[in-house]
Amino acid sequence: MVNLTIDSKKIEAEAGRTILEVARDNGIAIPTLCYNASLGPLGSCRLCVVEVTQGKKTRVEASCGYPIAEGMVVETKSERVMNVRRLVLRLLLARCPESEQLREMAAGMGVSAEPRFTPDKDHSKCILCRMCVETCEKVVGVCAIGISGKGAKKATSAPFMKEPSTCIGCGACAYVCPTGHIEMESTGDTRTIWGRTFRMKSCKVCGRYFAPEDQLAYISSKTGVSEDDLATCISCR
Ligand code: FES
């Protein structure tokens, strides 16, 4: 076990855990954009920064990937921390001025929604956090999307900027996207995402369209459960 202090609160926690995990377990909120427990730290957004003092050194670090240590003192809302977070948000807003999620977060932190830096004009809401890419690869196991291009032209897309041929339409990428960049529309018996339209399966009990047929076929191939056994929605199981 490790003894540390977060925002003046003495805490004992298991060694090997991160500052973010321990803070949240103890009711101390730290904002994040690119963190999801099932993916682990990606370290992309830097919104989770905190001030960490170890010995005589104090540094600003991303809390999502920083392991706790004996005697560590952490400040999650110091002036220095808040200034860095506001700067990070201003930069993200300049990249994605149309992201409603970023604008709301900015308002909560007292940051003007009007970008202070010259805003990008490509209408993208992608902050390149990689959450969608990691989810598709590590959670779903499909690898339909990735990061393409270099420098200012970097973007999240399917290989060669085409429609992703291996996508199963599950929508997990849209679900984890923190900025609303990935658009998914489910209407009636179709779902459209990444420029592809998928046919939805209707539940054999209630008739509600509940999942793309490609997703059910994929689950069936991975688990050995027949597609017929998967043809019932969660509510009717
Ligand atoms: Fe830690 Fe994004 S949540 S860098």
Give a structural overview:
The chain is an alpha+beta fold. It folds into two domains: 1-123, Roll (Ubiquitin-like (UB roll)), CATH 3.10.20.740; 131-236, no CATH class. It is 25% helix and 21% strand. It has helices at residues 19-25, 79-95, 100-108, 131-140, 172-176, 213-223; strands at residues 2-6, 9-13, 49-54, 57-62, 73-75, 146-148, 155-157, 184-187, 190-193, 196-202, 209-212. The strands form three sheets. A five-stranded mixed sheet has the order 2-1-5-3-4, with helices on both faces. A four-stranded antiparallel sheet has the order 8-9-10-11. The chain has a two-stranded antiparallel sheet with strand order 6-7. Strand 8 and strand 9 (190-193) form a beta hairpin. Helix 2 runs antiparallel to helix 3. The longest helix has 17 residues, at 79-95. Bound molecules: FE2/S2 (inorganic) cluster. The site of FE2/S2 (inorganic) cluster has 12 residues, from loops. FE2/S2 (inorganic) cluster (FES) binds at residues 32-35, 43-48, 62, 64.
Task: Work out the helicity level.
Answer: 10-25%
Enumerate how many helices there are, as a single number.
Answer: 6
Sequence stretches where pLDDT stays below 50 over 5 or more residues: none
CATH architecture of the largest domain: Roll
In what order do the strands lie side by side in the largest sheet? 2-1-5-3-4
CATH class of the largest domain: Alpha Beta
Task: Indicate the overall shape.
Answer: globular
Radius of gyration: 21 Å
Percentage of residues in strands: 15-25%
* SSE ordering: EEHEEEHHHEEHEEEEH
Could you say how many structural domains there are in total? 2
